[in-house]
Amino acid sequence: MRYYLEGHDRLNPVLQLLICLFPDEEHIRGDGEKIGEYVVSGLSEREGRICAWAEGYWGARREELCPEGMDISAPQVSEYIRRSLYLLLSERMDKAPQWGMLTGVKPSKLALKLIEETGSKAEAERILQERYFVSERRAALAIQTAIVSQHYKQLRRKDDIEVYVGIPFCPAKCSYCSFVSNDVRRWGDLVEPYLLALIDEIKGTGSVLKEKGRRIKSLYIGGGTPTILSKEQLFMLMSALIEYMDLSSLEEFTLEGGRPETITAGKLRIAREAGVGRISINPQTMNDDVLRGVGRFHTADDIRRCYHMAREQGSFEINMDLIAGLPSDDDEGLVYSVRELVKLEPENITLHCLARKKGAPLRFGKTGELSERVIDTCHDEMRKAGFEPYYMYRQKYTAGGLENVGFAKEGTFCRYNVIMMEETGDVAALGSGGVGKFIKPGGKIVRLSNPKYPLEYIERHKSAQSDWEPLRLALEND
Q1: What span, in angstroms and rounded, lies between the C-alpha atoms of 75 and 312?
Q2: Which residues, 6+ apart, have CB-to-CB distance to 18 below 8 Å?
Q3: C-alpha to C-alpha distances, 269 to 227, 241, 311, 340, 398, nearest whole angstrom
Q4: Whole-number mean pLDDT of the chain?
Q5: pLDDT, position 172
Q6: 3.80.30.20, 3.40.50.1760, 1.20.1260.10, 3.30.70.3400: which CATH number matches 156-435?
Q7: What's the CATH fold of domain 2-90?
Q8: Residue 191's closest CA among 430, 461, 454, 434?
Q9: CA distances, 282 to each of 106, 354, 393 (Å)
Q10: Hey, how many other C-beta atoms are within 10 angstroms of the C-beta on 76?
Q11: 8 Å CB contact between 57 and 40
Q12: Which of 37, 126, 170, 319 would bridge 181 by S-S if both were Cys, CB 3.0 to 4.6 A apart?
């Protein structure tokens, strides 16, 4: 859809709302004469107040008056811009979106802010529904996950920190994947030099964290597929973490296994002996035809065998991921996958809604759409089995405009997932593509980013000694 801005240049609230409501369309900013199918978002003054308005090519107009005294430069004006445009566009939609006018990745962050401002979960939930047009069920979900976030926020000490270590390699790149992961069949020669560069970063980061008196509370090795490393490489990585990081305050240590064909009893023993207490074994679906269609090498039976092997090797808490909306899957297949995982009785199940590559067709089920009805059914199946939602986030171009939710049995919430996603504590991120986040007074976030791709990361390591001063500054608590 073509869009025009009048009286303001706040592109983000307009474009992000259009992407959320109409992810399959191309959105082009118009200039000059208005042509074709379009909307206009504007700001003007009326009776001494700022007025946000939106008009459509079909002749409709909606207006939202900002509160008295609000200056046109105030950040809150963006909410009224988005609200007027949402009210205009919602009149043309077949059904209301589950998340209303919310466009952000972290609905629970807004929910927590509302809880803290109002002092009431019920009032926060009401505001989500009435001011932001979130459905009753999604508003309740945001509140429930916000309460978990609040718990970890209240537990946090100023010297606490979480650490992420990235291994950006996979056995093969899945057809739907939009993350930075590198097919080891093509980039396998980079694994060893990448690991050596990573160990140097572990050494340097560990030294700075000790210097600053930081307590590492959770350690998360993610990917990619970290268990793509050989036994020897995994042992080298674990040994470096133990040697160079002070893990005396560690409460949680996670290793993403991911694909069962990369997980062996020997690797699990190395992980267990290093102190890993939580692992991921991710089927994505328990339908073999769907697995083949998206480029996965394993079968549902491989998942079952791997799961039981992990149970035999140690007392790991196990997370298992599913993706709703995969090509050639359907409602019945998705619910079947959830029920099969529930039977295995892992501690955590995470249900993602497919984040499509821009412009990629969904091809899910008979209608080609992922509905909230089937996601709600899956959530209900997990709740009945004793799982409760504990963290949640959204992505651009997500199937059905829906959400990703982590479910867990009581007492098995993943601390790292909550703090990282809700941005309630400091996170140091190591490896290519890593983005560290450091929370400052007033909620300001300082970000430190590593090179996105492994080759760039390795080359930076070769070309010069790492500069640890940005990390030292980011770790200052004042």
Answers
A1: 54
A2: 1, 3, 25, 27, 39
A3: 12, 16, 11, 26, 37
A4: 92
A5: 58
A6: 3.80.30.20
A7: Double Stranded RNA Binding Domain (3.30.160)
A8: 454
A9: 23, 14, 18
A10: 11
A11: no
A12: 170
